[in-house]
Amino acid sequence: MILGLETSCDETAAAVVSEAGEIVTNVVASQAALHARFGGVVPEVASRRHLELISPVIREALDGHEVDAIAVTVNPGLIGALLVGVSAAKAFAWAKRLPLIPVNHLHGHVASLYLQPLDLQPPFTCLLASGGHTMLLDVQDRGSYRVLGTTLDDAAGEAFDKGARLLGLGYPGGREIDLLARQGDPTACEFPVARVPGLDFSFSGLKTALLYRVRDLTPGELEARKADLAASYQRAIVRALVERVEATGAERVAVVGGVAANSELRAALPGAALAPLPLCTDNAAMIASAARYTEAVPYPGYLSLDARPTA
């Protein structure tokens, strides 16, 4: 049994996962409502809230289960938030004389595909699209991957969040745009899809295009056209993602990350292996899953382990 901890951004999460990839418990305490008033995550606020939540979340996840190892996200993410999880993991592992497994958050997203009942077997090409990262990965085995393409500026999830802010919608922006877009016409507005070399992505131009559209409208016009703008903007983001996936020519495709919860993206890739909706956003089950394929640090060698904000 592995206890996984995840505190890389604004979700305080703990989960117990078996060696076979069965989710025993999976607890996620979201801070979305706390950050909604700011229109996005405030790092210092997130860190302080993690401090308040980490102990009760761990207790709820353990639920009387004995574990054999502790896994924790060490990178990438907000450094203050990461340090809360890493410190808690080291303290728990040291007190129990257990090994500790440092996990890369991005590997965790891919490893969400290895949990029961999906239990996807490599090789496959993986689209990882979240608030902080947009990448195409070549996955040949469960312990590693090779980056085929990445974003040159903003991530797809960030484009959704900033687009929602421009349209006066709530946070998290991706969910709000997805809901509103169902009431709009995705062909009503033409938004650009960046054509960059290779398999990389770019979303900064798309955000700027939406900004200019919104600036040209009166408040009344914006309100009347908001659903169409949301639908067209979402269509442009999804088209950029799908075109890059198709450009790989891959026969087996998987999609993970927070943006993988988007209904239009899921519909646009009907043959892909999709991370289950509860495992798209940040959670600790995926961290414990990745730990099964990551080398553990034995007691007490992990006491000098540190968090890193970059991948």
| Low-confidence sequence ranges | none
What is the number of domains?
2
Strand order of the largest sheet: 3-2-1-4-5
CATH architecture of the largest domain: 2-Layer Sandwich
Gap between N and C termini: 26 Å
CATH superfamily of the largest domain: ATPase, nucleotide binding domain
Q: What value does the average pLDDT take? A: 96
Helical coverage, percent range: 25-40%
Task: Describe the protein in words.
With 311 residues, the protein is an alpha/beta fold. It contains ten helices and ten strands. It has helices spanning 32-36, 43-62, 79-96, 105-111, 156-166, 173-181, 204-215, 219-247, 263-268, 285-291; strands at 2-6, 11-17, 23-30, 69-75, 100-104, 124-129, 134-141, 144-150, 253-256, 273-274. The radius of gyration is 20 Å and the shape is globular.
For this entry, give a set of tags:
311 residues, alpha/beta, Nucleotidyltransferase, domain 5, 10 helices, 10 strands, 19% strand
Give a quick summary of the entry.
The protein has 311 residues and is α/β, with parallel strands linked by helices. The protein has ten helices and ten strands.
